Hints:
Largest sheet: 3 strands, mixed
CATH class of the largest domain: Alpha Beta
Number of helices: 13
CATH topology of the largest domain: CBS-domain
Helix content: 25-40%
Strand order of the largest sheet: 1-2-3
CATH superfamily of the largest domain: CBS-domain
CATH architecture of the largest domain: Roll
Order of helices and strands: HEHEEHHEHEEHHEHEEHHHEHEEH
Radius of gyration: 20 Å
Shape: flat
Number of domains: 2
Amino acid sequence: MATIKNLSVKDVVETDTSFNLICLDESDSVADVIVTLGKNRIISAPVKNGNNQLSGIIDMLDLITLCVTKFSKVSLLAMESWQQMEEFAQKQVKDVLNISGRNPDLSISYKAPLSELLLKLSQPNAHRVAVYNEVKDVVGLITQSRLVNVLFERREELKSRFTGTQASQIASRPVESINMNQFVIDAFKQIWDKQVTGIAVVDDTGKLVGNISATDLVRTHVKPIGPILHDLYQPLKNFNNIRATTNDKVLMGDLPSYPPITVHPSDTLETVMKTVVDNKVHRVYLVDDSFKPVGVITLGDIIKMFAPQSE
Length: 311
């Protein structure tokens, strides 16, 4: 039977049969980066320079930092606001690498033990690790999401880790929330200010009605230049198509909605991981009987349950 101690980074990489490393160039524009990340449904990618060497990894938190810096205050003059949008869209990726200060440059050997990977990805702000081979070439990325998927796939082998732990014991920090009537840019600013990757969206009664994360920046229209201001300065209710009233249901019709993914505080670790894996999300909210958020579990919280210090 497999244990944490006899698994390696190689086991995580090789089981990912769909893996396809998407790389960006230092000269790529921010608009192109956002489109590429959205198209490939990823939240980060390696960036290479003109010599085909790794410069770093661009992350959605870097792009959110630039977005908040550019658009927290928007000029009422059409020419100046257009210039803001143009500067944002045409900024080169090399100029925004780790401007968030929350995108550490982490790497690990292909042959390293899984325990080392668990430690790295359970650190604050550690969302992915670059994997290198014997000659130090980067051969892949392992994200927190990928690692959680592998741990869940091996749950029968690691069953001792899944017993006796409830959702309420996994959550490590209070829920950050924002009212659904506030603007999208306000949510991005709160994500930046509070140093989280996503926050709960609530209605006027405090009931959970949605989620907004740094990744949602890929849903804004950065090309052609112009529509992004409309996206950022609309209520979260509209951005997430939250149907809070009968009028909303009529107006939004069959537009796609983005409901929050939840678990109950008494749910097991296995249930939490199944919910995360099945829904392909980076966080789940704990809700009470009134559907008010009382906690949040991130991928990092789950990984900590398997890291060596939890043995």
